[in-house]
């Protein structure tokens, strides 16, 4: 039988709650329709924000929200998104479908959204097509309480007190859509732009430099060498794409081979974090600079018949498992990974919520993030054991069949487990070492009879968490039965 030893008295670091962060870009139906419908909409809303989505997001306990992009950030000009809506300048969203953006959702609306869902704001500034003074003015506009031009402009637009803003990104994917730069050039620009990203009053910015594309370790090396002392965080983007960028594979029509390849590619995040972090250790051995994985998740072909520039995809049990795999990896690297933002929050890529008109559904990914939010700000515990192997005939390699991660907060231990094998159930013996007394548990499971199972607007609860009773206590250890393709969270008592 597979075995896991959870060491209740051996912590490996703190799981920053921001690992459970999200990302919302002006892309497709994420902001418009998905979150913002405007005050005059027939969809029930509060100040233009749809009530159903806000309620679901609040329940998820989202710690931090990144906005306005993504690629959109490097062509966003913040002044277009303030003041009376009827006067706001329109623009073409050239990255995402070439649609006209009316800028009705801007800085004030973003901060209000963060208040409504109780998340910390994370803003990404424009380096690719913006200027140093434009970025500096935006920060003054948002965070200064002085009798100054930008603070007074904010007051004129109805907001007297400055907002609190900690997380600020200096550009996005500047190796690609954010300017096609070489790392040396971007590092120089980063140093210049961040100089004028000022701390006003007691507002202290946590400055995040634009990081590497996937396995571009040289980018990390150059950024650390030239800019380490000017940054608090360095971002990393990695998407799980089962096929190629030209044909990524369908979100709901897939077989076991695609499942295996997707899981294997998802686990690549572990190697990426190890290697980028090792590169960073050369300049920052004490791990002062955090890795900010501010875009991660599955990227499939868009749903047939939808705008290719809107990146709308369904979300199945495969997404649930990929979410769990990534969260386990982030927990493992919690000494270096200080934030991660799933892409994206609503209607785009591996979304937690999908909408269609006035209808809304929670995806399997939503449920995993909700089940796992017990780990936010908890101490990650060391886990050792035998986790089995899962492979697929004809495909290279294999991966651990079972994933186990554990944490402790306020004396309570949570153990989360997944079984990545889509056809075979398995048992695993869980021993809690370093803790007094016997164990009992309460549990929740997410599983389905079909790996393609997903929620639809007619059947919103086809995949939903259920109470878990599949563990029994034997000789002071828990024997946990994990169905095929399942995710379980246990609260040990
Ligand atoms: O999340 C979609 C896009 O993926 C983002 O805009 C960009 O940063 C990345 O390439």
How would you summarize the topology of this molecule?
Blueprint: E1 2-14, E2 21-23, E3 45-46, E4 49-50, H1 51-60, E5 64-67, E6 91-93, E7 99-101, H2 107-117, E8 120-125, H3 132-143, H4 149-156, E9 167-170, H5 183-195, E10 206-213, H6 217-227, E11 233-240, H7 256-281, E12 290-298, H8 317-332, E13 337-343, E14 353-356, E15 359-362, H9 364-372, E16 379-386, E17 389-391, E18 398-400, E19 402-409, E20 412-419, E21 426-433, E22 441-446, E23 466-467, E24 471-474, E25 477-482, E26 486-492
Helix pairs in contact: 3-4, 5-6, 6-7, 7-8, 8-9
Bound molecules: alpha-L-arabinofuranose.
Residues 25, 69-71, 172-173, 295, 343-344, 349 line the site of alpha-L-arabinofuranose (AHR).
Care to describe what's here?
The protein has 493 residues and is an alpha/beta fold. It has nine helices and 26 strands. Helix 3 (132-143) packs across helix 4 and helix 5 runs parallel beside helix 6. The relative contact order is 0.15. It binds alpha-L-arabinofuranose (AHR). Residues 25, 69-71, 172-173, 295, 343-344, 349 line the site of alpha-L-arabinofuranose (AHR).
Could you name the key traits of this structure?
493 residues; alpha/beta; ten-stranded mixed beta sheet; eight-stranded parallel β-barrel; 9 helices; binds alpha-L-arabinofuranose
Number of helices: 9
Show unreliable segments.
Answer: none
Q: What kind of oligomer do you see? A: single chain
Helix content: 10-25%
Give a short synopsis of this structure.
24% of the residues lie in helices and 29% in strands. It is α/β, with parallel strands linked by helices. Alpha-L-arabinofuranose (AHR) is lined by residues 25, 69-71, 172-173, 295, 343-344, 349.
């Amino acid at each position: 039988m597979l075995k896991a030893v959870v060491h209740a008295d051996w912590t490996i670091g703190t799981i920053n709650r921001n690992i459970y962060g999200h990302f919302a870009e002006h892309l497709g139906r994420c902001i418009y329709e998905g979150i913002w419908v405007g005050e005059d909409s027939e969809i029930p809303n509060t100040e233009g924000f749809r009530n159903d989505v806000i309620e679901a997001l609040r329940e998820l306990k989202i710690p931090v929200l990144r906005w306005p992009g993504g690629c959109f950030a490097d062509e966003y000009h913040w002044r277009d998104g303030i003041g009376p809506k009827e006067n706001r300048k329109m623009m073409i969203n050239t990255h995402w479908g070439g649609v006209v953006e009316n800028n009705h959702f801007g800085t004030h609306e973003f901060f209000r959204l963060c208040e409504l869902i109780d998340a910390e704001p994370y803003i990404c500034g424009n380096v690719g097509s913006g200027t140093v003074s434009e970025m500096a003015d935006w920060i003054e506009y948002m965070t200064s309480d002085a009798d100054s031009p930008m603070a007074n402009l904010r007051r004129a637009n109805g907001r007297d007190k400055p907002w609190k803003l900690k997380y600020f990104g200096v550009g996005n994917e500047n190796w690609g859509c954010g300017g096609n730069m070489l790392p040396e050039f971007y590092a120089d620009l980063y140093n210049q732009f961040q100089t004028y990203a000022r701390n006003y009053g007691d507002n202290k910015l946590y400055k995040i430099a634009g990081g590497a594309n996937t396995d571009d370790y040289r980018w990390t090396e150059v950024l650390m060498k030239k800019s380490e002392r000017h940054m608090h965080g360095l971002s990393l983007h990695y998407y799980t794409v089962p096929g190629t960028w030209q044909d990524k594979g369908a979100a709901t029509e897939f077989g076991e081979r695609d499942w295996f390849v997707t899981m294997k590619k998802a686990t690549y995040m572990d190697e990426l974090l190890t290697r980028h972090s090792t590169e960073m250790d050369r300049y920052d051995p004490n791990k002062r600079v955090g890795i900010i994985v501010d875009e991660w998740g599955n990227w499939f072909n868009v749903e047939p018949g939808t705008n290719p520039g809107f990146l709308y995809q369904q979300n199945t049990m495969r997404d649930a498992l990929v979410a769990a795999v990534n969260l386990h990896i982030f927990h493992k690297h919690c000494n270096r990974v200080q934030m991660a933002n799933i892409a994206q929050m609503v209607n785009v890529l591996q979304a937690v919520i999908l909408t269609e008109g006035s209808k809304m559904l929670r995806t399997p990914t939503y449920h995993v993030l909700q089940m796992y939010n017990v780990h936010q700000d908890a101490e990650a515990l060391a886990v050792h054991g035998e986790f089995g192997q899962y492979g697929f005939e004809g495909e290279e390699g294999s991966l651990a069949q079972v994933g186990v991660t554990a944490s402790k907060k306020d004396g309570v231990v949570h153990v989360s487990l997944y079984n990545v094998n889509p056809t075979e159930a398995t048992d695993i013996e869980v021993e809690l070492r370093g803790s007094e007394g016997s164990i009992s548990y309460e549990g929740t499971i997410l599983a389905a009879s079909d790996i393609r199972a997903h929620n639809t607007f007619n059947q919103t609860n086809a995949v939903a968490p259920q109470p878990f009773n599949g563990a029994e206590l034997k000789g002071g250890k828990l024997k946990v039965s994990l169905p095929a393709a399942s995710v379980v969270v246990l609260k040990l008592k």
